Amino acid sequence: MESVQPPAGSQVSRVPAQRAPSEQLPPAQAAPAPEPPRRRLRTVLIVVGGVLALLGMGAVITGFVWYNRAATPDRSSPDVVVVNYLQAALVSRDFNRAKLFTCDGAVPALDEFGAQIIQRERELNVSFSINIEGVAASTTGQDASSVVAVIRRSASIDGVQQSLTDIWRFDVQDRDGWRVCDGAKVS
Length: 187
Fold this sequence. Notes:
- The protein is of the alpha+beta class.
- Helices cover about 40% and strands about 25% of the residues.
- It contains five helices and four strands.
- The longest helix has about 30 residues, at about 40-70.
C-alpha cells in the first residue's frame, strides 16, 4: 500500500500512529551503574611499600648508630684511654687513630719509643709482639689521673724467644673524655 500524503496547506489532522503498549509506558529506571572494580592490588602495594620504606629507614638509622659506636673512640676512663692509645700507637701503628686519644696529638716520648721499636725490628729483621700489661690508674685531681702500664716487647731472635719490659707512666686529663697528655718511661 502506498502512503498518501495530504496536500500541503490542508487541514487534515494527522492521526498519531498506533504504538505498541510497551512504548506507551514511561521509561524504565536505568540499572544501577556497576561498582568500580575494587582496587585491592593498589591498596596492597601501598601498604607493602609503606612497610618497606619504614624498614629501610629503620635499617639506615640502625646502621648509623652502629657505625657511630664503632668509630667513636672509647675514652670512658683513664686506664681504657691509655690502653687504646698504646694499641693504636705501638701495636696497630695507626698514628692518626692514636691522636684521637691524646690532648695535643702527640706524646713525644712515646713517639720516639715507637720509632726505636721500628728501627730495632729492621736491624734484627724481626717483628715484635707488643703487649700492654699491668695497667693501673690513680687519681691525681678532679679531672686528672696518672696511669702506669707495662709495655712488653717479645720476639724470636735466632730461634730464641726474647722479651723486654718497660714501665711507663702517663698523665691523663678529662677533656670531653679522657685523653693522654704526656708520658714517660719510668724504668
